[in-house]
Amino acid sequence: MFPFFQRKNSEIFTVLLIRPSKYDDDGYVVRYWKGILPSNTLAVLNALTREVFESGRFGPNVKPRVVLLDDTVHTINVERLAGKYLGKNKRAVAVFAGVQTNQFPRASELAVRFKQAGFETMVGGFHVSGSIALADSMPPECQTLMDHGITLVKGEVEDAWSGLLDDALNGRLQLFYDILVKPDISHAPLPEINKRYQRNFVYPWMGTIDCGRGCPYHCSFCTIINVQGRKMRCRAADAIVARIEENYRLDGVDFYFFTDDNFARNQHWLAILDGLIDLRERKNVRVSFMMQVDTKAWKIPGFIDKVARAGGTQVFLGIESLNQANLAAEGKVQYAVDDMAEMIAAWHRANIACHAGYIIGFPLDTPETVRNDVARLKELQIDQCSFFMLTPLPGSADHARMAREGVWMEPDLNTYDSCHETLRLPNFRPGEWLQSYREAWESFCSFDTIRATLLRSAACRYWELFKNYMWYRNATLEKMHPMISGFWRLKPRTDRRAGIAPEGFWRHYKQRVVDWCENITTLAKFMAELQELWLQTRQRSATSPAAYLEEIHKKCGNFATRMVDAVVVRWNAMGRARLTTRQNLDAYWARFAVWVRKLRLLRLTIEVPRALLYLQREVRLGLTFLIFFLHELILPQPKRSR
Predict the structure, then answer these.
(1) Is residue 18 classed exposed, middle or buried when 0-12, 13-18 and 19+ CB atoms within 10 A define those classes?
(2) Which of 435, 453, 243 is closest to 355 using CA atoms?
(3) CA–CA separation, 424 vs 407, rounded Å?
(4) Which of 206, 197, 191 is nearest to 467 (CA)?
(5) Residues 254, 638 contacting (CB under 8 angstroms)
(6) Distance of CA 385 to the CA centre of its chain
(7) What's the pLDDT at 1?
C-alpha cells in the first residue's frame, strides 16, 4: 500500500461544559425559551479549554472540541449526547461547572446519568469547594457522587486544567482533586464569548468578565471568602480592555456585567476604567457595564466620576439590611446605615442607577420591620432592589457554626436558592418569612413604584431601567427569583426530579395547554402594563422620533426608515388625540368582554364600528411601543466587521 493511501488513526476528544439548572417545587427543571444571565463560569472554562487545545498538548492525532450546554436554556439528552460524542475513536468528558448549592441535586442526577452512559465526569463549583472547605469530613452528598465514580474538583482550576483534561482523555481521573493554591489570574485567558451559546439569551450582546476574585471582608453568610479567599487577585487591565474592544468589533457585545464580588477593591480598577474611557472617547467603542461594589466605594476619590465616564450605568450595592445591629451580627461592619442617602445621591448625580441587594431573615427582622425597610428603600430612591432570604450556604461561616451547634437546616439542597425557608426563625411563624419576602418583591416591583423610579431617573438611564423592570416584573409574576429566571417557561414531561414519577402524556399536556393559555393571558396583561408605564413616563426618554429615524436610516436602511416613519411619526400624527394612557382602551375592552360573555349580540353588532376604531388605536399604540422598545434593544449594536 502506498503511504499516501494510508489513513492515520485519530481520536476525537470532546469536552462538554455544562451549567446545571435546578428543580422547581413540582420537580420540573427550571428551563426557559430565552435566558437572562449567561454563565461567566462557562465562558472562563471555554477560554481555558481552547488554550489547552491550541497548545498542542494532546498531539496531532487528537482532534479536540468544546461544547457549551446550559441546562437553563438547553434540553440535555444524555443518551443522544452519548451517541454523538462516544464510540470508536471518540472520548468525551462532561464537566459540571460552577455548581451552586441549589443546583447540586440537579447536577448530581445528571452527572450520574453521564457517568453511566460512559462519559468521564467532573463536578466543581461553589458547593463542592465551599462545603468541603469548612467540613470536618467529606459531605455525604459529595461522597455519594464519588461512590458513583464521579470526580470532584475543589478550588480554582486555571493552573490545573490542562492536567485534568489530560487525565480525562487517558481515563485516569482521580475521584478527588483538592486544588489548594489560588491561581494567579493576571495572565490567565479571559472569559471567551460563544456566539452560539449567547443566542439562547434575550440580550445576546451581553458579556461577563471576572476582573478580579476574592473579597477582603468577613460577612458570615457569604461563601466567597472561603472559596476564592480574602486576598484580591486581579486580571491584567490591558488584557481586559483589549478583549472588550475585540468583542465589540467582532460580535457587537456592548454591555458587560463585571462579576467581581467587589470591583472597587480590584487593585487595577483605575487602569481598567481609564482603558474603557479611552475606548469610548477616542475609539468610539460605546460599551457600558454594571458592577458590584461595597457601600464605601463612593468615598474613593474620583471613583464615581471614572465609572461614569467609562460607561458605568448601574451599580449593585450589597446593602443587605438597614439595621446596623443586623449587620454587626453577621460580621458586615464595613459601612454605616446613616450614609445611605448621601451614597445613593452621589451615584445618582453621576447618572448611575443604584441596585440594592437586600437580605430578609436576619436576627432582628420581623414582618413589620421588613415592611418598614422596603418603604425606607423607596424613600432612599433605590432604583432597583433584589431581595434574598437568608440562606445558610455550605461554605459560609454561618453554615459551619449551625452545623456544629446542631441547628436545624433544610436538608433539601434544591431549596437553597434564597427563595425558600431553610431555617426556623424565632420572629416569623411558619410560612410568614416567605410571605414577607414575596410581599417585598410585590411592593418594590409594583407599577406605582417603578413609575416613580422612571419619572425621576436620568433620561439616559430610562430604557435600561425599563428593560430591567420588564425582567424583574416578569419574574415576580412567575414567583421566581430574577437571577434564575427567563422568558417563557418550558416543562418537558419526562425531565423531572428523581423520585417524582412523570405525569401521563395526556394529563401532562392537558395541564400544559392550560398553563400556556394562562401564560398568554398574563403576557397580554403584562404588555398592556408595559405600554401604560411607557405612556405615563416616556417624556423622560432622551430620544425622539426624529432622532430614531436618523439612526435607523444609518443602521437599517431606507425600507425600515420608511416603515418607522409611517408608524411612529405619520400614523400617530393623524390621530385626533395623542394617547397618554391606556385607561380608556382598557375600560372599553372590559365592557366589550362583558357583552361577549353575556352574548348580547345586538349590542355587539352595533359596537362593530367603535370596536374597529379602538382596535386601530390598539394596533397603533402596540406598533409604536414595539418600535421604540426594539430600537433600544437592537439598534445600539455596532456593525460587525469580519
Answers:
(1) buried
(2) 453
(3) 9
(4) 206
(5) yes
(6) 14
(7) 43
Report the pLDDT value the prediction gives residue 225, as an integer from 0 to 100: 82
Instruction: Classify strands 176-178 and 206-209 as parallel, antiparallel or unpaired.
Output: unpaired
Whole-number CA gyration radius for the chain: 26
What pLDDT sits at residue 329? 63
- The answer for residues whose C-beta is within 8 angstroms of residue 124's C-beta and 6 or more apart is 95, 96, 97, 98, 99, 152, 153, 154, 157
492 touches 29 (CB < 8 A): yes
Grid coordinates representing 520 are 398568554
Specify the pLDDT at position 343: 93
Q: Could you give phi then psi for residue 235, rounded to 5 degrees?
A: -80, 160
* DSSP codes joined into one string, 261-292: S-GGG-TTHHHHHHHHHHHHHTS----EEEEE
B/e letters for 282-305, b = 16+ CB within 10 Å, e = fewer, are eeebebbbbbbbbbebbeeeebbe
Which residue stretches of the chain have pLDDT < 50?
1-7, 540-543, 574-577, 636-642
Amino acid 3: pLDDT? 46
**Residue 616 corresponds to which cell in the numbers above?**
386601530
Q: pTM higher than 0.85 for the full model?
A: yes
Residue 323 to residues 328, 367, 392, 442, 555, Cα–Cα distance (Å): 9, 14, 20, 22, 50
337-372 tens-digit pLDDT: 678 899 999 999 999 999 999 999 998 899 999 999
